[in-house]
Every structure is written in structure tokens, then in C-alpha cells.
Write a structure and sequence with these properties.
single chain, about 200 residues, alpha+beta, NADH Oxidase, five-stranded antiparallel sheet, globular
Length: about 200
Amino acid sequence: MYNDLSSPAAYLATRRSGKARELSAPGPDTDTLSVILQLAARTPDHGKLFPWRFVVIEDRAALAALFQRAFRAANPQSRPAQIEAAAAMAFMAPMLVTLLYAPQVSAKIPEWEQQLSVGAAAMNLLHAAHMHGFAANWITGWAAYDETVRAELCSEETERIAGFFFIGTQVAALEERPRPALIDISRHWPQIGTKAK
């Protein structure tokens, strides 16, 4: 495991996603996954709208068949090898959870804030999986935006797929990815040394 669990600060400083195609068994069991999802749901949520849903994928073969059907419909000239490659994602990692964005009608809470909440739930899901000793990977890709896939995995017309979360055990060593320098992504207001007018 790449992330350091010796302290919260060390964990946050070293956490990074595993690659879904490299995640192997074991994955979380049913009870552990339940805890992971409960922790993921402890997220900022203005108005207590719960604008997110979790779909645990039980049948990978059925998901692969859905991906094949969807890819073929969207790409009628596709070759068999392309269709098989499109379906391969369904079998990566021992555990797969789909996070849905489920916007709620509200006169007070704008959709933008609900979108932020589902993003926070996504990050919580990654953290919860990692803190339980697993690695996880948040992927979107073509399937997250395909209407055939959306219609099968979403129970409401307004729901959308926020991502597929692959969870398992990291086998290969992870290399740190480039991170931005703080000076490039933050600033002070008013600027240091000036006074607000």
C-alpha cells in the first residue's frame, strides 16, 4: 500500500489512487463495504438532500454484457476486439461500486451545490476504502456518459453516473503523480501587504 496510515497527516500526504486494472483480491467483504459506504455518505450536504446513490455491482458478467450492448449501439461500425475491450472494464478489481448523482428538487439548494456534494461523497469513498487497507480508483470513461448504461444503472431519469469505483488490493508499487505547487493553486485576498478598500 502506498499511503502511510501511521497518522492522519501522513495518510493525506501520501494517499493516491491505485490503477483499477492492477487491483487484485481481496476486496472488502459485505460488512466492510457497508462501513465504507456509510463513511462515504458522511459528506457535506447543504439542505440534507442526499443527492447521491451507491450501486454495488453484483454481477460483473451482466455489466460486461451491458457495456458490450451499449458500445455496439453507440459505435455500429466497431470491430469485435473494440467491443471486448469496452467490456473489459467490468471485470477490473474485486469490488465495484457505481456512484450516482441524484439531484433533488429544491428551491433553496442550487444544483451546483448538489454536484459539489456528490464529488465530496466520491472523495470520502476513496478515503474510506484506503483507510480500511484497500486501494481504490475512481473512473468515468465512455460508460459513465453512455445513455444505455445510464438507463440501466440509474433508477430515476434525472440521475447520472458520477463514476465507477474499483476497490481491491494494490499489488504493484505506486509511483507518485505530479502535484501542483501550492503557489500555483492558491492566493490570498486581499493580497498580502495590501488593505481591503
